[in-house]
């Protein structure tokens, strides 16, 4: 019988509180700008925090308040941004879709291994152990810190390095922050000619630690007719705004570290 | 309760039986929201507000519903129900009546629903057979102790930001060590009341 009392009492309390709250929600209703909810719909919705606001709701409120730029949400992409622009009555500022690129080709067997790493499966931990399991100090360690951080399942680990699926990548930048080696970089989607190495050691050292390392020879720079390539810190850089994606550099690269995806 | 008793009770709640450093309740917001003095003050005030009202309502529910019906073993569930509903109600009420206070307390108000310190104070009131006045005072003073602790911690953490800390101790390790040292310091108040 007492168990019945317990159920009835808690049920009654729940009902009363529920009733009071329902009444209060009507009574104390505050009109919220309906655009906030509409903007919220257009966002990536992963609460990744890359915009610098507390979650998607915070960003949506800031957009409507005019404090945040409408292109502040990278995961929303161009489509989401156009949606927000329509709601806010603004023209969509042209911002090109970015994508995360892996600037390393040091797969197992290509990049020399310093030792057999058998510890906790985290790049940050491995990087701290005698300079990491790969000889190259710029190499992707392939233990998946970026994969764990990716909320969209765009990153996979194959042959000891990270691979990004450009179709799934939303350029939120979570993986870029997670990588202890700085191997990942956000680049414009259209710039598909990429120097996939950032080894700034001298040519001899770079070549000794990895078969596919950029040795900074400068042949690509000479071949490029558009002055899009510079060699700094011992490796080549391509300026996406000058590059015409002709691919002449990739053809002459002796180390095959410029790729066209 | 005479004035002297109230003062002694206040010292006891704030210093000797500090919620964080002595009872280890409410450690989650203590570590989570103590990175800036400004936000920690907001959080402390929100907790003070909710704990005072929760003590009052939980006492009423316990003494006028649970005891007469001999359902005191249901206290935890009943208290959680009361606290959750109360926080929701207070949030709605503040949103309408005092937008300034609402935005000052901000996200911290709903966070308090799941703060064990609030449930802790209700349970302590019940276990110690406190009267209505003493329960409410216990809620207020304990929450002020929480406010003191979180603001002190935020001050320490702001200083830590700019100091040179070995890489292995950066972030949470040094924060937890500082919190431990502060708890040791608060042990010095033992026997004061």
Report the uncertain regions of chain B. none
> Judging from the principal axes of the Cα atoms, what is the shape of chain B?
globular
Q: What share of the residues of chain A does DSSP label as strand, in percent?
A: 5-15%
SSE succession of chain A: HHHHEHHEEHEEHHEEHE
Q: Between the first and last Cα atoms of chain A, what is the distance in angstroms?
A: 73 Å
Average predicted confidence as pLDDT of chain B: 87
- Overall mean pLDDT of chain A: 85
Biggest interface reads: A-B, 18 and 20 residues
Helix share bin of chain A: 25-40%
Radius of gyration of chain B: 18 Å
- Strand order of the biggest β-sheet of chain A: 1-4
Tell me the β content of chain B.
under 5%
Radius of gyration of chain A: 25 Å
What coarse outline of chain A follows from CA principal-axis ratios?
A: elongated
Span between N and C termini of chain B?
16 Å
* Number of helical regions of chain B: 9
Task: Describe the protein in words.
The complex is a heterodimer of chains A (261) and B (193). Chain A has helices at 2-27, 34-42, 55-64, 77-88, 123-127, 145-149, 174-178, 203-209, 219-223, 248-252; strands at 98-102, 155-158, 161-164, 184-188, 193-195, 229-232, 235-238, 258-260. With 261 residues, chain A is an alpha+beta fold. In chain A, strand 2 and strand 3 (161-164) form a beta hairpin. In chain A, helix 2 packs across helix 3 (55-64) and helix 2 (34-42) packs antiparallel against helix 4. Chain A is elongated, with a radius of gyration of 25 Å. The termini of chain A are far apart. Chain B is mostly helical and 193 residues long. The longest helix of chain B has 30 residues, at 37-66. Chain B starts with a helix and ends in a 6-residue tail after the last helix. In chain B, helix 3 (37-66) crosses helix 4 and helix 4 (75-97) crosses helix 5 (99-105). The model of chain B has no long low-confidence stretch (mean pLDDT 87). Chain B is built from nine helices and no strands. Chain A binds chain B through residues 2, 5-6, 9-10, 13-14, 17-18, 20-21, 24-25, 27-30, 54, and chain B through 61, 65-66, 69-71, 74, 77-78, 81-82, 85, 88-89, 92-93, 95-97, 107.
